Amino acid sequence: MADLNKWTPSDVLEPIRRFLDGDLTMTSIRVEQFLDGNTLVVRAEVPGLDPEKDVDVSVADGMLHIKAEREEKTEHKSKAGYRSEFRYGSFARSVSLPPGAREEDVTASYKDGVLEVRAPAPEQAPPAAGTRKIQITTEPGTRSDEPPQNPV
Asked: Would you call 14 helix, strand, or coil by DSSP?
């Protein structure tokens, strides 16, 4: 979980960034993000949308951007009357990619109303198993506990 936390600061600041950019109409998409090995997985529920025309997934400058737009209209005509309902809205979310992730390796799929984006990151070298003390060598007369020698 600690590895995932290093990518979240931009996610927390996303609504503030949109506000400062003057974008007050777009709401945020709720996402689930987790690590699957060295791959960041981001899932967003976007049911009822056509992923080819209503959803846009892009990457730029180390960020994953998901945008979706919903537009629904229903009409009911009968002898008793006419009823029309509509709803629409735009949704967006940006998530930091893992350090070292290559934008060309990011993939997206859509199944049963769930968009899944996968961003693999290169394996990082494991931290050293222990601490190794490094010996400091000194030249004669340079230690602080030795009196200075007078050249004659």
From this structure: helix
The reported pTM is: 0.59
Q: In the predicted model, what is the mean pLDDT of residues 27-43?
A: 87
Tell me which long-range contacts 11-14 makes (C-beta under 8 A, separation of at least 24): 11/93, 11/94, 11/95, 11/96, 14/93, 14/94
Q: Where are the alpha helices (DSSP H) in the chain?
A: 2-5, 9-20
Taking residue 1's Cβ as centre, other Cβ atoms within 10 Å add up to 6
d(CA 100, CA 123): 9
Positive or negative, the CA dihedral 104, 110, 113, 116 is: negative
Asked if residue 50 has pLDDT above 90, the reply is no
pLDDT band at 75 (very low <50, low <70, confident <90, very high): confident
> In the numeric block, which tokens belong to residue 141?
């007369």
Buried b (16+ CB within 10 A) or exposed e, 26-41: beebebebeeeeebbb
Amino acid at 36: D
Q: What was the pLDDT predicted at 2? A: 47
- Residue 61: which residues within 8 A CB-CB, separation 6 or more? none
